[in-house]
Amino acid sequence: MPGSRRAPPRTGVDRVGAGGARRARRCAAAARLPAVAALAAVVALLGVPAGAPAALAGTPVPTAAGEPSPGPGPARFYQQRLSWARCGPDVQKSARSQGDTAPPGFYGRLECARLTVPRDYDHPDRTALQVQLVRLPATGPGKRLGSLVLNPGGPGASGVDYLIGSGSAFARPNQRYDLVSFDPRGTGRTEPVSCGSRLAPPPGNGADDTLAAKEKRINEACGRFSGGLLPWVGTADVARDMDVLRAAVHDDKLNYLGFSYGTKLGAVYAHEFPDKVGRMVLDGVEDPTKNTWQTALAQARGFQRALDDFTADCVRAADCPLGTDDGRAQDQLLRWYRQLTDTPLTVQGRTVDETTYVYALREALYSRSDWPALRQALAQLRRGDGAGILRLSDRGGSLAPTRGTARGGTAVAVPPRAGIPPRRTGQDDQLPPQDQLALRAISCRDTSERYGAADYPRAERELTRASPLFGPDIAPTLLDCYAWPVAGDDSSRDVAAPDAPPMLLVATTNDPATPYEGAANMARALDNSSVVLTFRGEGHAAYTTGDACIQNHVDRFLMDGVLPERGTSCG
Asked: Mind telling me which InterPro entries this protein's record contains (predicted)?
């Protein structure tokens, strides 16, 4: 859902649109594990022998300088010792599923642990949560600087899976930092939000199966299955978890690299703990001055600009499937949209409709390195073959990181798709996959905005004006929080941190998901002399493009604490 909520390439339109089942989203049901099975899963994940003492919650250690003294309340969580061990079968399987692009020995270096945090920080002596962690110990050479915490965005994306998929892309910082990531509360392996296994049918004769009514049924199911968790999954609580993590890895300051929604998380941390901020880099920066509706409009315009850039580049090539005239190229893209709306194609028994088409376009616009694949897919489409469109669209089916190609040909893991969830396809009784449920839960906790059926026509009008292709599929995300069972809280939009040290904000001029101007707005809102580093290019997030200039500036700040001069740009 928009409203600065999802990552790059993820963070994150997965909705049943006005066309009804045509936009029904592909969903894997996320059933809740029974308590015994859940404990067994944790044991397997960490490789802890059955019947062994629960080393999942840390053990007390002497008080570090500047940390709270042990005792009742949240202080005891700051004194835990993490039990790092080789990751268990679950994580190893996830590692292998990322592909074999990692250097030799990479997966064997992965270590896992559990961090214990209170579910409710106002009542820390009640229920606790176990946050899943993963780390890559520093390789050297050079003096170890502590831990560098990574967040890939989303929200709803697994930080554990992201580090597994992308850790080798951060080899230079990993020389002197332990790379650490985690699954935020409500996501992945940290008490994941569940809304049951299947969506209940519409009441009565099913006449009220409008988009808004279906969103309401999804949200009511989330309340039934995860109502006790939903008040505690907001960004402010995750920021407090990060401070407990900082203490557990024995760092006086939090060193942090966050992408997309991860930039919001980092800014909220700085607001809450300004004296604990170390070297913090925010890449693909969310705009804290925009609400959900404004962010949806900004993203529609952003993706349209990115598409305009693609067509302008394509028509300069002799083999462009859109022709050689930019205006006619735009008309052709719209013509295919209408044709697929009226007459979808079939590829190996699967439907390729206008929603599949829009998702393929958007997926390719997250990174310029995907433009050749989009040109090829459009050339196939021109021949009546939707296979390439389907392949591109499938890559946007979750918030999991995707593989990209950096400048120079190096494979990298691109942070999850930001801001807009993947489309919903499949049967009407299927629920969104777990990462999308987590995205919804975190986003709805972070805003008091609750748009309903009466708001939808205006949303569709305004967003379609912003982008005839992307607007209609972004508009349904504004209904994400319709009848959400837990009240929202707008306080996470306050990121003022005048007492925090300056941060490095990295902004891409043609970022479709987190538009460029968001970084300047974030810098002003932080009010701590943070520096904006500009990447003149396309795509969502800059560090993972492999651009040497961007990486040198970011690495120099992380390793030596040296910020670039104001006004510096790369690309």
From this structure: AB_hydrolase_fold, Pept_S33_TAP-like_C, Serine_prot/Carboxylest_S33
3-state SS assignment for residue 412: strand
Decide the pairing of beta strands 146-151 and 254-259. Answer: parallel
Cα dist from 362 to 125, 172, 261, 293, whole Å: 46, 31, 18, 19
CB atoms within 10 A of CB 568: 14
**Calpha distance 71→362 (Å, rounded):** 51
Q: What is the token pair recorded at 366?
A: 């997250």
What does pTM read for this prediction? 0.84
**Which residue in this structure is represented by tokens 């013509």?**
335
Q: What is the pLDDT of residues 261-312, one digit of tens each?
A: 999 999 999 999 999 999 999 999 999 999 999 999 999 999 999 999 999 9
Residue type, 282: L
What pLDDT digit, counting tens, does each position of 170-201 carry? 999 999 999 999 999 999 999 999 999 888 88
Please compute, for residue 487, the number of CA atoms within 13 A of its CA located in the half-sphere on the CB side: 3
Around Cβ 411, how many Cβ atoms within 10 Å? 15
Tokens linked to 17: 């649109």
Give me the helix-helix angle, 159-166 and 89-97, nearest 10°.
50
Q: Which residues, including other chains, have CB under 8 Å from residue 567's CB and lie 6 or more apart?
A: none
Q: Which residue has the tokens 């987190």?
A: 514
